[in-house]
Each structure stands twice: as C-alpha cells, then as structure tokens.
Amino acid sequence: xxxxxxxxxxxxxxxxxxxxxxxxxxxxxxxxxxxxxxxxxxxxxxxxxxxxxxxxxxxxxxxxxxxxxxxxxxxxxxxxxxxxxxxxxxxxxxxxxxxxxxxxxxxxxxxxxxxxxxxxxxxxxxxxxxxxxxxxxxxxxxxxxxxxxxxxxxxxxxxxxxxxxxxxxxxxxxxxxxxxxxxxxxxxxxxxxxxxxxxxxxxxxxxxxxxxxxxxxxxxxxxxxxxxxxxxxxxxxxxxxxxxxxxxxxxxxxxxxxxxxxxxxxxxxxxxxxxxxxxxxxxxxxxxxxxxxxxxxxxxxxxxxxxxxxxxxxxxxxxxxxxxxxxxxxxxxx
Length: 334
Hints:
This protein is an alpha+beta fold.
C-alpha cells in the first residue's frame, strides 16, 4: 500500500508575514518607519499587498533590505517573496483585462511538442553558459573600473587635508596610498587624506577578485600659508578679547616612512579619520584629552604642547585609543 504524507506549507503572504511579525513584537508602523526610514504609507501598502501603489522595484527592494536588517530577517527571502507575489498580481491583472475575449497572436497554428521544449531548453542553457563564461573571462583579463571623483588632478587645496571620493567596480578592494579603505555595496568610497605642504601625490588603487589592478594617481598642491594667514588675521581681530579660552592641549602628529590610517578624537568628538601621508604634520587641539588610533603604532610620532614624545607605540600594527592630556600620555603616568 502506498502511504501518503502531508507537509504543512506556510501560506502567509509577504504582507501577512510582516503584520504578524509586527504584532508579535508589539511594534507600530510609525516605530518601524522611524527606525528604517521607510514611509508609513509604503509599509501599509506592503502589509495590505497593494503593490501597484508602491514605487519602482529598486526602491521597494531597498525598503525590504532595511526592514530585514531591523527585524533580523533574511533580506533575500523577503525580496524573492515580493517578486513572486508581484508577478502573480501582474498575471491576474492581465487575465482580468483580457477577459478571455482575445488570444495571443501567433499561437493559433503553433503546436508545441516535447521535442521543441527539449531543444529550447538546451539552447537556453548553451546561450546562458556562453554569456556567463564571456563575462567571467572579460572580468579576468580586464582591469577593474575605477574613477576618482575628487580631488581633481593638479588642483590646489587650502589646508592640511583633502577628501578623496570615487567609485569602483562592485566587489573591488580600494587602497589609498596602500591603505585599505571602506567601500559600500555600490562601489563608492570616501576617505580623508592628510597632506604635507606643497605637492602631494595620492595613489588610488582598485583590485578585483581576480587580482587585476587599476591605479589612478592624483597630484594635489597643499597651501598651508593661506590657512596661517587666516589664523593670524583672526587673532589680530580678536586679540582685544582677553577672556577668549586657550586650548590647553595641542597635539602634533605625523607618520614616517609609510602612509598610515589615523583616527583622532578630541574631548570625545571625532575630529579626523583618514590616511596621513609621510611628512604631513597634523595639529589637533582639545581642552581635556585627545585619543589617537593608528594603523601603525611604531610609525606614528607625537608631540604634546611642543614636547616630542616619540612614537605612539612600539607595536608595528594597529594601536587603539592611546589617550593624552596636557602633560603627556595618560597611561604612562599611572
């Protein structure tokens, strides 16, 4: 005797699933909207299955990603269910509009046989494989796409740092002067780079998953004198104000011999995060304390209020949260 088994199938739609999760966690639509930045009306459309009132699919997929992250769900599962249900909605709408009064053109005399189905399937597999292989070979032999948007090559920057922004091929690793930087899912990157007076060369490198590289070099001239003149003029204007506060901590920091990523916090506020070039001396002020994080502790040099304290740390790797006050490194005085 043949035995039949039953399997319970989750028949909840995407909207029913979202509403059930919200009820279980006792969340309101406004609370979810505030945390995910999704407008309340779009959350209502998703829960009610009113897909025709939603914006373009690319935005809806972004909504579902944000929703999945907030709820701790699998974003791909939500997106696939949305695509499947929206396709069903479209097919139902076509059937209703057609109302059975007309037939698709060209099918009256066409007889589909099993042989035709098999041949079509084989052709589809062959074409898909060819396209996939072509794309993989093309990616393997070609350099990754890289475009440095700012700063412009040959430009002049007023100050001791500049903001490097650009976009690269998705999945590529980005390095600025051999220091890795963060890249978002679109391939966009943005990083501060400390400069030395005069001419600076910033090398931006993209590396694909096949280890193919593309390098763009940008020359930037750093004008420190204009900043000094502005500071002097500001001091002349305000010198009558005897009650003006003076920062008790002045930290000077530079790296040698290699470019190094750096993060500086003054009195608990992040004031710098980026790559320092060799010989680029950066100065930061604070009232109580300054915290320094460096990618290379033994290649980072520090001065406090003009006193040379030497290297940040003897470690040759990343050192975090080294704290200084007006008298020097705090941990050294314990």
